[in-house]
Amino acid sequence: MMENNKTNIELQAEIDRLRGLVASLEDQMSQHSQRSERDLEYRLATTLNNIPLAILNLDRNGLITSANPAFIKVFELHAEEIINKQNIKVFEPFSDTELREKIIGLVDNLEDFDIETTIPLRKESETFFRCRGIKVSSNISDALNFIIIIGDVSRRKLTEHELVKAKEKAEESDKLKTAFLASMSHEIRTPMNHIIGFLDFLKDPELPAAEREEFSQIIYESGQVLLRLIDDIIDIAKIEAGQLHINSTTFSLTDLLNSIWKKYNEIRSKRNKGHIAFRLNVPPNSGVVVHTDVVRLQQIIGNLLDNAFKFTDSGFIEFGFELGDDHVLRFHVKDSGPGIDNQKHELIFMRFRQLDYSSTKKHGGTGLGLAIIKGLVELMGGNIWLESSPGKGSNFWFTLPDAVVQLEKPATKEIVPTNQPVNWSEKTFLIVEDERTNFSLLTIMLRPTKVHIVWAQDGVQAIEIIEANNNIDLILMDIRLPRMDGYKATAEIKRINKSIPIIAQTAYAMDIEISKAMHAGCDDYVTKPIEKNQLISKISKLLND
Predict the structure, then answer these.
(1) DSSP letter string, 364-415
(2) Burial of 72 (0-12, 13-18, 19+ CB in 10 A)
(3) Is a pLDDT exceeding 50 seen at residue 159?
(4) 258 and 396 together in one domain
(5) In a domain, 28, yes or no
(6) The pTM is what?
(7) Are 536 and 437 contained in the same domain?
(8) Same structural domain for residues 135 and 190?
(9) Mapped to the 3 state alphabet, what secondary structure does 179-204 carry?
(10) Is 125 in the same domain as 188?
């Protein structure tokens, strides 16, 4: 019996010891758990306080229980204003936003969300954010809370928007180039069809003289169309490359405008637009002398008039200028055509642009004209703009500052009229040209002048002729030649005889090539295709100097 009592006492002592050990272990585990939880909370707080994302913690009812510094900074708040005081459902920065609706769904219906939306901020109109809302339940208690994570994705959205715009621009550019190439093909093939077709007819020896003259005129005009097209392409390339230069001279503006009016008054009849009133409107007593690029000014006004005649079917077309008190010239080309919507005023000055590609077949064109005009006007120091609205016609204005020299017509030097016959029967010209066809063309052009012609087929042969003859009065020098090019031949000939006038004939339309020819010693130049009247005029000027 005593032994049993002893055993019970020992057993009870062991149980008590085990209970104490378990209690001690539980206490240690509790302390460890508390330390771990505090450590975890500290780590989490440290992370949340340093993370760039704006983070909110909500209780089961939507009360804001914590907000990290990023949230406070983004929405320009003070923590004491919202922590345990503000319910997310009535949080003012989120009012009238998609985010507010999603948060209500999260709190009331436990619906997690992940959206991208805009939230208006105080300093900015709207900022794009990615917003996530998740429910979080505790392993220790039955408490349920919610976490809202907000990240600024405006930069990514801007990049995406720019990529979309770039893609749209590339697609539009591709579309414009396709339309441009289609128009270009049409613009090239149409006059080429005229030239080839009517040249075939001219081979008929029994063709009546009247038809021969008519067909020849068609071929000439078609060639001019092709030349203008090529000039447009070269001009736009020069403008974009910054290689187009303005060559200013002094001339009578009134005389220029009168000659333009005369030219387009004749064109008006040829285009069956005789019923359209065409007038030149200039100030009274407007004997204005200007210093600018006469060729480019004529090109600008001519292109604007071409457009006016192209799109005006009735009413009037007017062009002219005004002279302001500031001596700035303001030119205008006005018509009673269909007009242009205000939203498209800038669009029409872009290259390859035509407002209605379906009208290309009716009106023609490549979409380069107004882009070239704008480039030329700006190179000349001016501005161009449009006043127009649908159904009320169009009025193109452009300015030329600092161009006026005087208000009286200057005395002009008498020159040989190009339409009057000249007699150079006592003159000898050297034509340096490797192509027989080009030589024959020049010979035919000069035949009415009765000039004696010597032919050299390359630069070396030209130098040999000059060394052997001292009776050459003028040289027409091609630039692209075999053995020795025109630049080197010109320089060597000028070394032998500095007084011989040399006119460069070149297919290069670039200013740098023309400048190179003049630097080599040429006295003037003509570009191919060579116009007879221009050639005769330049030769006359050099022979008379």
Answers:
(1) ---S-HHHHHHHHHHHTT--EEEEE-TTS-EEEEEEETT-EEESSPPPPPP-
(2) middle
(3) yes
(4) yes
(5) no
(6) 0.57
(7) yes
(8) no
(9) HHHHHHHHHHHHHHHHHHHHHHHHCC
(10) no
| pLDDT, tens digit, 9 for 90 and up, residues 185-216 | 778 888 899 899 999 899 988 889 999 999 99
CA–CA separation, 403 vs 420, rounded Å? 33
**Are residues 539 and 503 in contact, defined by beta-carbon separation less than 8 angstroms?**
yes
Token digits of residue 167: 């893609």
Residues 359 and 443 in one domain: no
Q: Report the Cα 223 to chain-centroid distance in Å.
A: 29
Rounded distance between C-alpha atoms, residue 286 and residue 252, angstroms? 10
Residue 8 lies in a domain: no
Vertex 128 angle, CA 125 and 133, to 5°:
125
Judge if 366 and 498 occupy the same domain.
Answer: no
Q: At what angle do helices 294-311 and 253-270 cross, to 10 degrees?
A: 30
Closest CA to 130 of 153, 111, 103: 153
| Range among 127-131, 252-256, 492-496 rated most confident | 492-496
| Phi then psi dihedrals of residue 395, to 5 deg | -135, 105
Count structural domains, the chain. Answer: 4
What is the rounded end-to-end Cα distance, in angstroms, of the chain?
Answer: 156
Q: Are residues 535 and 434 in the same domain?
A: yes
Say if residue 256 is in the same domain as residue 399.
Answer: yes
Q: pLDDT tens for residues 330-370?
A: 999 999 999 888 877 777 887 665 555 444 444 455 668 88
Residues 6 or more apart from 310 whose CB is under 8 A from it? 363, 364, 365
Domain with residue 479: its CATH number is: 3.40.50.2300
CATH number, residue 300: 3.30.565.10
Structure tokens at 5: 């009592």
Domain that holds residue 353: 249-406
Q: Is residue 413 part of a domain?
A: no
CA distance 439 to 505: 11
- Among 34, 52, 53, smallest CA distance to 42 is for 34
Distances (CA, A) of 505 to 414, 481, 528: 25, 11, 7
